[in-house]
Design brief:
2 domains, 8-stranded mixed beta sheet, 37% helix
């Protein structure tokens, strides 16, 4: 996907959603709805997502649009990092997922690691806060990514309905990465924090 068309589509959709949220004029409302249709048509023409699916997704995003939050847990054992193999694409990533309403970010990281790998962990430090829309491949929905360094406190490897396999990997011997979820630069940042506990949190 071209990053530029995604940026245009995001901007049109954000403007139309704000208009639908705050406008009281029925004619303006119709114009904002048409802008959403145009956005959906752009997505359909440039991807495998249908216009109908895009519009259905839009309908679930009521109110003013804000970024989604992807939380990841970085777990190191014997200088190797815990990765899970995603059922979605067959590639590997740090355990994690979208933050849920009502949950603190650290608790999301701890829960996601437990659910996706079977290991119990404790979040110790924020390694990075990343604008995921600066990472290729670009996604339509804007997201921030928070990576927590977590200490291993128990459990044993166990796959879930979202994972195919679990393993600890050396930074120099990584499996194929699900790069939107976890890329090599993120993993390098994790290991830099392990080497230097005083290293400052990386952020965009």
């Amino acid at each position: 996907m071209s990053a530029k068309w995604i940026q245009w589509a995001q901007e049109i959709f954000s403007m139309s959603q704000a208009g639908l949220t705050y406008s009281k004029n029925e004619f303006d409302i119709e114009r904002y709805k048409r802008l959403q249709e145009i956005t959906a048509e752009m997505i359909e023409s440039q991807s495998e997502v249908s216009k109908e699916s895009a519009l259905e997704s839009f309908s679930m995003q009521a109110g003013y649009i804000t970024p989604k939050i992807d939380v990841r847990g970085a777990v190191i054992r014997e200088n190797k990092i815990l990765l899970i193999q995603e059922k979605a694409d067959g590639k590997w990533a740090m355990p994690g997922g979208w933050a849920d309403l009502g949950n603190a970010p650290a608790s999301v990281a701890e829960r996601e690691v437990w659910e996706e790998s079977g290991y119990r962990v404790q979040a110790e430090k924020v390694i990075a806060v990343i604008d995921a829309n600066r990472i290729e491949p670009m996604e339509f929905y804007h997201a921030f990514k928070i990576i927590f360094l977590c200490s291993l406190i128990g459990g044993e490897p166990q796959v879930s309905h979202e994972t195919l396999a679990i393993g600890f990997f050396d930074l120099n011997d990584l499996p194929p990465l699900s790069i939107y979820r976890t890329n090599e630069e993120m993993l390098q940042e994790v290991f830099e924090h392990v080497k230097d506990p005083s290293r400052k949190t990386y952020f965009d």
